[in-house]
């Protein structure tokens, strides 16, 4: 599908061919889920995946919903709860939620005085907006039972990844061991999670370290959470600081260099693996 096409979700920015760098605060807001969520999203769509920064007002909740695409939700600020498959977990910064395609889920903020902010990624088999499910209760629990009954020990297909198993939906990332990530010579370490269609990594690059120039067949997003340095995509090098969102089109050479210790999120599709 061409990157020149319009967005899948009304009002969402669709990355143009060759458009690689975005400042998240400059991306226009859209409702995160008009029929079920009080949140607002700053979203950019790519070819295979879309990413967004979502803010949920303190003390509010989303209603149960599902969508045909899978969803990663990495909590960055605030505390709350997430319910998937009828099971509730407490969420806090660097907790990672995985909602499998079609899984019924919802979340809410714990503290009226503090918004919940999260980085989210979905594959492009559907748009940003899901479908409200008013009859979620029994259906969600049945989904969990079916997932686990079918379930098994799915092997990782991405080197170094922790494959999400059927029925799993929450991971406290700081509790998982960090491992080397990236091409030969990379000094990146992180926690790499693999879903059905996409991967998400929480990655760290020490001060003065780098991820050398490389390319791969997967579309990739990088979102800078902390630190400073630079990122290059093709011939274009930009200063990196928190809030920089980078889209790397399939096959495009890119690198990362950290001046101050850098923490970032990386999302890739699995289409071309
Ligand atoms: Fe969702």
Give a quick precis of the structure.
The protein contains 1 helix and 23 strands. By secondary structure, the chain is mostly beta strands. The model has no long low-confidence stretch (mean pLDDT 94).
CATH superfamily of the largest domain: Jelly Rolls
Share of helical residues: under 10%
Strand coverage percent: over 45%
| Overall shape | globular
- Cofactors and ligands present? fe (ii) ion
Mean pLDDT, all residues:
94
Task: Assign the CATH class of the largest domain.
Answer: Mainly Beta
Write up this protein.
The chain has one helix at 136-150; strands at residues 13-14, 21-23, 29-31, 40-45, 49-56, 65-66, 71-77, 80-84, 87-91, 95-99, 105-109, 116-123, 131-132, 162-163, 170-172, 179-181, 188-194, 198-205, 210-214, 220-233, 236-240, 244-248, 254-269. It is mainly beta and 273 residues long. It contains 1 helix and 23 strands. The chain starts with 12 loop residues before the first strand and ends with a strand. Residues 65, 67, 71, 99, 105, 130 line the site of fe (ii) ion.
């Amino acid at each position: 599908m061409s990157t020149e096409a319009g967005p899948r979700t009304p009002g969402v920015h669709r990355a143009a061919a060759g458009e690689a760098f975005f400042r998240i605060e400059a991306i226009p807001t859209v409702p995160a889920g008009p029929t079920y969520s009080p949140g607002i999203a700053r979203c950019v769509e790519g070819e295979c995946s879309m990413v967004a920064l979502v803010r949920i007002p303190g003390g509010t909740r989303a209603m149960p919903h599902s969508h045909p695409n899978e969803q990663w939700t990495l909590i960055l600020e605030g505390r709350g709860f997430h319910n998937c498959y009828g099971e509730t977990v407490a969420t806090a910064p660097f907790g990672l939620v995985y909602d499998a395609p079609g899984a019924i889920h919802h979340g809410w903020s714990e503290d009226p005085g503090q918004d919940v902010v999260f980085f989210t990624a979905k594959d492009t088999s559907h748009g940003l907006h899901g479908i409200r499910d008013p009859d979620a209760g029994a259906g969600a629990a049945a989904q969990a039972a079916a997932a686990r009954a079918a379930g098994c020990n799915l092997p990782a297909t991405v080197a170094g990844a922790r494959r999400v198993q059927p029925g799993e939906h929450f991971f406290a990332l700081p509790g998982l061991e960090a491992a080397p990530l990236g091409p030969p010579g990379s000094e990146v370490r992180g926690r790499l999670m693999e879903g059905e269609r996409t991967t998400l990594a929480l990655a760290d690059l020490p001060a003065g370290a780098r991820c050398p120039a490389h390319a791969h067949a997967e579309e990739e997003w990088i979102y800078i959470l902390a630190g400073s340095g630079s990122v290059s995509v093709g011939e274009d090098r930009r200063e990196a600081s928190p809030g920089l969102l980078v889209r790397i089109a399939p096959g495009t050479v890119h690198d990362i260099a950290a001046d101050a210790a850098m923490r970032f999120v990386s999302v890739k599709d699995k289409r071309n693996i």
